[in-house]
Amino acid sequence: MKRTEAAVLVLLLLFVCRPAVPEDEWLSRDKAFHFITAFSATLWSYSYFRYQRGGDMRDSLRISCAVTLTFSIGKELKDMASGMKFKTNRFSYKDLVFDVLGTAAAAALIYSLDISGRKGK
After folding, report:
1. Terminus-to-terminus CA distance in the chain, angstroms?
2. What is the pTM of this model?
3. Closest CA to 96 of 63, 120, 68
4. What average pLDDT does range 3-31 have in this prediction?
5. Kindly report the CA angle at 65 between 60 and 71, in degrees rounded to 5?
6. Among positive and negative, which fits the CA dihedral 4, 99, 76, 11?
7. What is the Cα–Cα distance from 31 to 104, expressed in whole angstroms?
8. Could you say which DSSP state residue 23 is in?
9. Residue 105 and residue 114: Cα distance in Å, rounded?
10. What confidence score (pLDDT) does residue 14 get?
C-alpha cells in the first residue's frame, strides 16, 4: 500500500469512527481560520523547501503538503486528548476537511503558477 493510500485510509477511518460535535458547524469563523492557516502554512513551507533548501518543485510541494497535514492531524489529536480531560476541545473531522481544502488550494495555486511560468519561457 502506498503512503498516499494509507493516509487516505486513516483519514476515512477518522471520519467514520468519530462523530462530529453537535455545535461544530460546517461554516464558521473557525473553519475559515483552518482553511487560511493550512493555505498559508503550505505556501510558506513550499517557499522554504523550494527556495531556501533548493528542492525541485514536485518534491518541495509534496513535503510542504505533508508537513501541513501532519500538523493539522496532530492538532486535532491534541484536541481529542485534551477533550477527554476538559470536554471543551474535541476532535473535529470538519476542521480537518478545511485543513485539507486549504492545503489543496495552496498546492493548486503553486502548481498552476509553476506551469504558467514554464509556458512563458
Report:
1. 39
2. 0.72
3. 68
4. 63
5. 125
6. negative
7. 15
8. T
9. 14
10. 56
Instruction: Single out the residue of 67, 100, 80, 62 nearest to residue 19, CA to CA.
Output: 80
At residue 107, the pLDDT reads 94
- Cα–Cα dist 101/76, whole Å: 15
The predicted-structure confidence for 67-82, as pLDDT tens digits, reads as follows 999 999 988 888 777 7
What tens digit of pLDDT does each residue of 78-108 get? Answer: 877 776 555 556 777 888 999 999 999 999 9
C-alpha cell at 30: 473557525
Under a CB-based contact definition with an 8 Å cutoff, are residues 99 and 68 in contact? Answer: yes
C-alpha cell at 98: 478545511
Which are the contacts of 79, defined by CB distance < 8 A and separation ≥ 6?
Answer: 89, 90, 91, 92, 95
How far apart (Å, rounded) are the C-alpha atoms in residues 20 and 15?
Answer: 9
